[in-house]
Specification:
The complex is a heterodimer of chains A (about 120) and B (about 110).
Chain A (H helix, E strand, L loop, with lengths): L4 E3 L2 E4 L5 E6 L6 E7 L6 E7 L2 E5 L6 E5 L5 E5 L8 E8 L14 E2 L3 E5 L1
Chain B lengths: L8 E5 L4 E6 L8 E7 L6 E6 L4 E2 L4 E4 L5 E6 L8 E8 L11 E6 L1
Parallel strand pairs in B: 1-9
Antiparallel strand pairs in B: 2-7, 3-4, 3-8, 5-6, 6-7, 8-9
Classes of the chains: A mainly beta (about 120), B mainly beta (about 110).
């Protein structure tokens, strides 16, 4: 089985532009989470989606948005890019997400990430 | 949300056991404790999780203190491929997952 895939692997944008990052979860997984990881820090939670519904949102501005499609793939959009948005964006898939019946036992499987550089 | 405290870095010799500590004194009674690791230039990968009792799998063992305020990840025989940043993450159903900076494990050949 293929693991979590993300595209593109690298991206360079300029301030003020908009970017869309894509994620395909593991087959059978219905939940996708997005994280931002700045160099030298742990991942920061942005969103979690399950069955196309937003299940959770981290402390990020409204410039960040996401959606999940019927095939469970997901897109993360960031508008009006700032220099501080430069980071590794990670997507993780899981069976149900943390609000599901298996709750805190759900395991996340991460993709390799998209490295976004904002100039 | 429960907060965690981990050492910034640890060193160990190859083929020796490694004990990675984590303090999570504000953990609630239903929070599972998960450990993930992140190898250089890769996304994080799951290592192990537990609630109250000690847990073992093919990668590692997790020892959870009786009061659940701390836990220790045990790698029984570290190899060079175990060099990574190890994250201790209490997980609950509030959908907000707060990762700390983790412990950078350095394995010396």
């Amino acid at each position: 089985d293929a693991g979590v895939t993300q595209s593109p692997t690298h991206l360079i944008k300029t301030r003020g532009q908009q970017v869309t990052l894509r994620c395909s979860p593991i087959s059978g997984h219905k939940s996708v989470s997005w994280y931002q990881q700045v160099l030298g820090q742990g991942p920061q939670f942005i969103f979690q989606y399950y069955e196309k519904e937003e299940r959770g949102r981290g402390n990020f501005p409204d410039r960040f948005s996401a959606r999940q499609f019927p095939n469970y793939s997901s897109e993360l959009n960031v508008n009006a890019l700032l220099l501080g948005d430069s980071a590794l964006y990670l997507c993780a898939s899981s069976l149900e997400g943390f609000g599901g019946s298996i709750g805190g036992t759900d395991t996340q499987y991460f993709g390799p990430g998209t490295r976004l550089t904002v100039l | 949300d429960a907060k965690t405290t981990q050492p910034n870095s640890m060193e160990s010799n190859e083929e020796e056991p490694v004990h990675l500590p984590c303090n999570h004194s504000t953990i609630s009674g239903t929070d599972y404790i998960h450990w993930y690791r992140q190898l250089p230039s890769q996304g994080p990968e799951y290592v192990i999780h537990g609630l109250t009792s000690n847990v073992n799998n093919r990668m590692a063992s997790l020892a959870i203190a009786e009061d659940r305020k701390s836990s220790t990840l045990i790698l029984h025989r570290a190899t060079l491929r175990d060099a990574a940043v190890y994250y201790c993450i209490p997980m609950d159903s509030n959908y907000q997952l707060i990762w700390g900076a983790g412990t950078k494990l350095i394995i010396k050949p």
